[in-house]
Design goal:
CATH class of the largest domain: Mainly Beta
Helix content: 10-25%
Bound molecules: coenzyme A
Shape: globular
Distance between the termini: 37 Å
Number of domains: 2
Order of helices and strands: EHEEEHEHEEEEEEEEEEEEEEEEEEEE
Largest sheet: 8 strands, mixed
Strand content: 25-35%
CATH superfamily of the largest domain: Hexapeptide repeat proteins
Strand order of the largest sheet: 7-10-13-16-19-22-24-25
Length: 223
């Protein structure tokens, strides 16, 4: 049951991640999703969960006014796009909401920035800090004192030891395991099932058990 004053909200991204976010937000009485936005011309004038795919992100301000929406969230796996689109939505005057599944445990000493997508079964332990626009896959365990940067994606089932730091724009693959006290740079990717036992430098891609760097990648463009 939605509250009378529920924030009318737009989801930018009408793909699989948009579905994930919708299915979390439908459980949140403080938020009422009223439409999706998507720049894919193939999705124009379509419907998703009985709601309109109302237009492109560039039209967010006008569409929000028409629909009485004051909230929005970008829903895509690409870290740079999620950050960019949340920035565009904020510039359109919308408040960036978070989609946090009710079946997660977030310690009251932990913190998490706006624009978060947190799937079911996630555990965030005391004094962990997560930045803006993070996407945390189901069953991930973020141990005490971890610091996760902005625009980071943690695949499902990632397990952190305590006091690990992860820079902006990282993608840690499904089932990655991180030894306590590690420092992971910015824009790092780990493959599925990686067991990370050493610090990883900025812009590196690491796979395997123990994880080894297999290549480097370009940093993301400035927002
Ligand atoms: C790590 C990753 C980015 C590598 O992709 P890539 O750069 O295209 O590299 P390739 O698939 O060509 O693999 C390069 C080598 O690494 C190996 N490799 C790739 N992923 C691996 C993994 N998870 N574990 C062990 N080895 C792996 C490949 O077998 C290949 O070895 P080879 O050179 O001996 O043939 C990708 O495999 C991956 O796992 N991405 C994360 C996906 C994910 O979980 N996303 C978040 C949830 S949606």
């Amino acid at each position: 049951m939605k509250e009378n004053m529920a924030i009318k909200t737009l989801i930018a991204g009408a793909g699989q991640n948009g579905s994930q976010v919708y299915n979390i937000l439908k459980l949140d009485p403080r938020i009422e999703v009223v439409a999706f936005l998507d720049d894919d011309p193939g999705k124009k004038d379509s419907e998703k969960y009985g709601l309109p795919v109302a237009g492109e992100v560039a039209q967010a301000a006008a569409l929000a006014e028409k629909m009485g929406a004051t909230g929005a969230i970008a829903a895509m796996g690409n870290n740079y796009l999620r950050a960019k689109i949340n920035q565009q939505l904020a510039e359109a005057g919308l408040g960036i909401v978070s989609a946090i599944h009710p079946h997660t445990f977030i310690d009251d000493t932990a913190s998490i920035g706006e624009g978060a997508i947190v799937e079911m079964g996630v555990m965030i332990h005391p004094h962990a800090r997560l930045g803006r626009n993070v996407f945390v896959g189901g069953s991930t365990v973020i141990a005490h004192d971890c610091i996760i940067g902005n625009h980071v994606l943690l695949g499902g089932g990632v397990v952190f030891g305590g006091d690990v730091q992860v820079g902006d724009y990282c993608t840690l693959g499904v089932g990655s395991i991180l030894q306590p006290h590690l420092r992971i740079g910015c824009n790092v990717i780990t493959g599925i099932g990686a067991v990370v036992v050493k610090d990883l430098p900025d812009n590196s891609v690491a796979v395997g058990v123990p994880a080894k760097v297999i290549r480097h990648q370009d940093p993301p463009p400035a927002l």
